[in-house]
Each structure stands twice: as C-alpha cells, then as structure tokens.
Amino acid sequence: MSKSPAKAKRTASLALAAAAATAALTLAFVTSASATAGAPQDGRAAVAAPSVSGSPEGAFSRIATFYGAYIDAVYDGDGTRAKQLRAAYLSAPLQRELAKWEETNHADGVLRAQNVPLEWKVTYVDSGMGKTNATVTLTWSGSDTTQLHVQADLKTRKILSITD
C-alpha cells in the first residue's frame, strides 16, 4: 500500500516534531543536570572556583604578585627568596627605608609584623600622577586584619612605598 503525498507529509512532520521534542527534553535534562552537578546537595549555592589573574605590564598586578610571592617565601622560611623578591619588586629607596624601619621595630617592614598572615588581599584604589595605589589587607589568626597602603610607579612598576 502506498501512502498519499499528504499522508506522507503529515507523517514526516509528526516524526520531525517528535524528534525535536525528544531533543528538547534531552537538552533540558542535560542542562539541568550540569547546572546542579557542582551544587552542594544540602541546598547551598555552588561557590565559584577561585581565580587569580594579572599582567606583567601593570603596576597593580605587580603589587599583588609581589605580596603573594613574598608571603609564600616568608611562610616557607625561604629568606633568600624573600630578599630576591624585595630586590626585584621594591625601589632602592624603599628597600633602604624598610631596613631602617625593621631595625627600629624588630619586625618585617613589608608585612609590618613579626609573623606571617594567614591570608592576603590586594585591592586597587586609584592611579594618577604616574603612580598606582592599592590597599593590602592581611588577615591574621582570629580574623584580625591589618591594612597597608602600597604605591607603585606606573612606568617602572616598582613599589615605592608601604605605609600602615
């Protein structure tokens, strides 16, 4: 038995509609499953994965890179690496100023402390007059924090000052 052209067209349309519906349901299921795959099962919202970015061309990025690497070196007890980082990232006048501050205060001048923070955060403040300014927040045990004001030269990208 041969189908009429109208019946064949209608059958093809129904088959196409069924295939489209199946694809839509499959997509909805996969999308829903992938959206909840990383979510905790107790109803809390999923937390975005942490990320860090920067640029070797930006003075602000250099401040953040320096503090991250410096704190790691001090935490690891690697005094040689800490000195190398100071030489690479800090201006010569600041290095001399920190040496005097450390002699007077018996503490690390970069961190303004005798111990190592548990966490650090660098926040951009502004840029102008050839300099960029940032706030470095250091978190200590018991969630105490210290804020340092750090300034870097936009041209050389060297850190020029650290003040509390």
Which value, in Å, is the CA radius of gyration?
A: 29 Å
Order of helices and strands: HHHHEEEE
Shape: globular
Q: Give the overall pLDDT as a whole number.
A: 82
- The secondary structure category is alpha+beta
Q: What's the number of extended β-strand segments?
A: 4
Strand order within the widest sheet?
1-2-3-4
Q: How much β-strand is present in the residues?
A: 15-25%
End-to-end gap = 92 Å
Q: Could you describe the largest sheet, including whether it forms a barrel?
A: 4 strands, antiparallel
Tally of contiguous helical segments: 4
Helix content: 40-55%
| Uncertain residue segments | 8-37
Question: Could you explain how this protein is built, in words?
Answer:
This protein is of the alpha+beta class and 164 residues long. 46% of the residues lie in helices and 20% in strands. The chain has a four-stranded antiparallel β-sheet, covered by helices on one side. The protein has four helices and four strands, in the order H-H-H-H-E-E-E-E. 16% of the residues are buried. The longest helix is centred in the N-terminal third of the chain and has 33 residues, at 5-37. Helix 2 runs antiparallel to helix 3.
Sequence-ordered SSE layout with sheet pairings:
Elements: H1 5-37, H2 59-75, H3 79-89, H4 92-105, E1 119-128, E2 131-139, E3 145-153, E4 159-163
Antiparallel strand pairs: 1-2, 2-3, 3-4
Helix pairs in contact: 2-3
